[in-house]
Queue: 3 jobs
Job 1
Amino acid sequence: MKYITTNKIFFLLGILIFTACSDDFLQKDSLSEISASTFWQSESDALSALAACYDGMQSNYLYNGDPYSCGQLNMDALTDNGGHFNWSGWMAGYDICNGTQSANSWLIADYWSSIYEIIKRCNVLIYYIDDIDMDEETIALYKAEAITLRALMYINLTMTYNDVPYLTEPLTISTANVGVTSRAEIVASVISDLQNAYEDLPTTADLGRMTQGAALAILGRIALYNEEWATAIDAYQQIVDLGVYSLYDDYSALFSTSGEESNEIILSVRYEGPGNEEGATFGAHWNTPLEAINGTMDFSDDFYCTDGLPISESSLYLGNDEINTTTSPDSARYLNRDPRLKATLWVPGMDWNGLSWSETGDIYGGATASYSTVYVRKYFDPTNVSNSWDSGQDFYICRYPEVLLSLAEALVESGTYSYSKVTSLVNQVRSRVGMPDVEDVEGASLSADDLLDLIRHERRVELGFEGFRMFDLYRWELWSNSVERINAEAKKYGFNYEQRISRGEQDYVWPIPQDEVDSNSEIEQNELW
């Protein structure tokens, strides 16, 4: 049985603490002073409370999802990797993709509330668990798990809303109104929390639970995202030195239930299905690749040919760049390409549940087919049509390739790095899928800027549709560039994409949800909004 069975053990915190509250994350209308003795009597109660903390990650606006909400997989559809081209207004986040978002936007409100729900649960456990008659080692373990999970949530918050309320204790009636704390202060505090907590975690644990590797990966991520290069390097190098993680041999099978227990997976959100009320929906589809989540030509074209060269330079490229693939599907352009392309995307020439394009013309999207004829393949199982809305597929939050590529990036950004060290990290990721080493293609004298471009490319093709692309574009300040490329793609190929708009500085910070501004006298809207 998978570790987290949310609906079955959620009752303690779910009923007694959270479900009695209103929708606003501060929930000041129903707060009251509580103590652990009110609802915790034993270690099993504390374990149920910890499970409730993990439970929140299964929100459709975090590490689950469906065609209408927007989990981490769908976040890539807001970027140059994909889009909701045909279903505008039906899916959360479409307005961010189109540059029409506001403080009243659907995704902006639900992402905020889903994250703070986890933070509240973690804070209750951290604050009250000392009152339970348990051994100190177990208390320290549960605290460390909750602290690490809370840290992950603050990464998501600071990467989107920037300055936010920083909650580290349960709220009461007297402390319900909380103002924002600067992103820099939150990041510094979270880094300190993780550095203090990770040693209380085990090296290995049941899948889905926090380990030292998971805490260090989260520490490295927040440090990398905030240009704390030395901290990132130290955290990521510690993961490598643990010797626990390795790359799974078959990338194409990694994002299926057969790959869930790979040593590559550092942290996952676990799902149990079908028929157990614990199934995932982030890979849901009907009898075709999911219409709502389209890929872009820009993304598919970024996968190099098998000689390690981009399609603009490789003699192995067989595509016709002038074809409108909507009316004339060009399967030749996807031959001789990085194997990760067809493990990440559904493209012309691939079968869907044993059916080829020539056998049925509408399998690539049905009634609302993608204009680009590119869809998401990663995490989608065409043979599991009847259970795709109740799947046992886990979602991977941290994988070992992220560690390797992030370490390479931090080393280059630090300005003090060994060329061979950086390329060896990238080569590990490339060689897993049979792509040539950096030195064999680009040589041994790339500049720092060229190395960063190479690493950024590798992140895109390795981590596509895993929820990294939006944060990467934000931190590299390349959102407007991505908008220009997708608008140019629509024009070049005659695709009927919705027009994307760049909003300048507003692209890199989300507004605080208007309901929160209206209900909390201490919160002021971000000055950009």
Note: Residues 472 and 478 are 8 Å apart (CA to CA).
Job 2
Amino acid sequence: MKMSVIRSVVIGVAALSLIAVAPAQADPEPDNWIWQARGPATSGSITGTLASNNDVDYYMFYAASQTQLSVTSLPIGCGSSLGFGLYDTNGDYLTHRSASTTKNVSMNYTTPSGTNRFFVRVYRISSLSSCVGQTYRVNVGPTSALLAGPSMNSGSTPTGEPNETAEQAAGPLAADTIYSGVSETQNDQDWFYFYASGAFQVEATENAGCSSDFHLYDQDMDYLGATYAGENRYRQFTYTPDSWRRFYIKVDGDCVGAGYRFSLGPASAIQSGPAPVPVVPGGVGALATRKTKKTVVVYWAAATGAQGYQVRKAKKRKKYGPWSGTANTWTSIKKKKIPKKRGMWIKVRAVNSVGHGTPSVRKIRR
């Protein structure tokens, strides 16, 4: 199984314009799959040609919240042999129309709240010989509703096998990266692993007219859930771990040649490795004091790796009492409990589940 890694597409604010295509020239290929969609179309005009009888063209645009959107096919000589459809951000079908040789044909759709991504798919309906090489035009409006955003990035970098079992799992996977692969046999399995310390999402898609199942397991190989990738559809699966853990993804394709793509996010949840090995906390540094009318407050800097602090007191330096715990970086002592002449010794150390740091000592007076 060959796989490639490409950078994930994240909705943003970078302005990119659709490249206009001159008559009698095919639009830039490849754009046959949803992740290869051209755009975003910000001018409201989409122009291209179908280069062959089995060619499919995808375009993408961003639309503003709750807009009365109109996607219109201009007349083309081959008429109803050409179809165009509107799809949502996950590639799910919304509506479609057939082109006409004599009139404009429109799809009308009210966008949901928020900024949304949409796709336009141009494809053949019947014999397309009269349409090959002819320029089609689709207008998206109103243009005031079209927003800037990032294009679909389909660059790739190959990686390799084997990853047929959990013991051979490829990884660790990174966040905001799209991983792609192919099911090469009927019973092929691909295994991957990654580390997560917070709520994460797996997003997947598929080509080749097949579908792939994505199964999620924890580090003990307990099954956690699944999603599937359908042809030109994006599907998501979310999970919230209770701690920093290692996870596995198993991919099963339902037919030979099924090509899948998936990504993990957000970056804040996906870690590059296992949880750091706990160590004893650092020191609290020099102890400082400030006085109020009735108390002396002893305070210190937060220690690296500390889960809490311990304080012990001595009216004589070598006769300390027991340690007492606190979550604060200070402790308050009533003045009347501090001997007038000798003062009092204070010792403070940071603690965690591993142990304690080096204590700091200071003598205080009323």
Note: The longest strand covers residues 116-124.
Job 3
Amino acid sequence: MKPASLPGEGGSSSFIFHLSSLLSVGYFVWVTTTILKVDGMNCGNCQRAIVRTLEELPGVSYAAASLPNGQVTIEHDSALSVDADLIHALEGEGYGASRPTAAG
């Protein structure tokens, strides 16, 4: 995880700063973890672009992409819509994204 930045610097570090500020005055934000299957991620540059795209979204505190698994793990504010926010952001960058299907 990136170190916290000062207010106004932007990025996910800014989110972490604001989250800790909200917690200090009595607000609680539910954070959830989502795993998405990503199509079109086939190199390290793709991996970095996917992480950067997601971490720039307000409400996303962490993203990690796995090239061998073709997946990305995202820690985010539970108020974000997986379909409308996370998947849409990746599709906007030219990647296919979906929820993984259950094995069975």
Note: Confidence is low (pLDDT under 50) at residues 1-11.
